[in-house]
Amino acid sequence: MRYRSGTSNPTVWWMASAEMDALAIPQLIRRLIGGLVGLLLIALIAGITLKTPIESLSDAFVSSLGLAGVFVGVVVLDALPFTTHEPLLLMGVQGGLGFWPVFWAAGTASVLSGIVGWGLGRLVGRSPFVRRMMHRYQIDRFLNRYGVWAVALAATTPFPFAACTWSCGAVGVPPGQVVFGSLFRYLKVLFYQTLLVVGFNLNDVVDALSGGI
Fold it and tell me: Are 122 and 148 in contact (CB under 8 A)?
């Protein structure tokens, strides 16, 4: 099945060729590695310069909302375009919820957000906002190029996940394919949460090891 966003503008199709080169798997992998390194550095800097306020905010978040706050927050953030859930992962762990409870809650919520995004795409797929988003990321070409694996790639790489799931709903991708691809969000949550926790606490670990020498 071929998916189309409905555009016939030749300028858009010319730009799509360049965009798809940027969305080739090797390019996506390079961007993913760069993003992971950047996330680790940000977490490290935050752990050195903002540790006390972040831990206070984490304690307040967990005391008020608990694991349910992580779950609901991730569902909402991952279902909306141009948002990110990483701060909730760090606050959940640093607030004392534990690494694995936060991972399972956030991973499951992120998978669920794929279905929510698909449903939103079905409801508002003909709106100018969704069409502009599809044109911007050339999602019809992305879907046609990678087929059933398109959502999985969006779930694990820097390609916008919510933009992909909304567009899947808009163009009629079967929901089963969206569920399958969304399961790969568990991998992304695991990698990102691990880097955040390690980076944020790395300075303390180094200090403890130094003090023991």
Answer: no
Tell me if 71 sits within 8 A of 109, measured CB to CB: yes
**In whole angstroms, what is the distance from residue 155 CA to residue 182 CA?**
6
Residue 150 phi, psi (nearest 5)? -60, -45
CB 168 within 8 A of CB 137: no
pLDDT in tens, 34-74: 988 999 999 999 999 999 999 999 999 999 999 999 999 99
What contacts 15, CB < 8 A, 6 or more positions away? 138
Per-residue pLDDT reduced to its tens digit, 140-183? 788 878 877 889 999 998 888 999 999 899 888 999 999 999 99
Helices (H) and strands (E) in the chain, counts: 11, 0
Positive or negative: CA dihedral 180, 185, 190, 195 = positive
Q: Tell me the longest C-alpha to C-alpha distance in the chain.
A: 68
Q: What are phi and psi of 7, to 5 degrees?
A: -90, 145
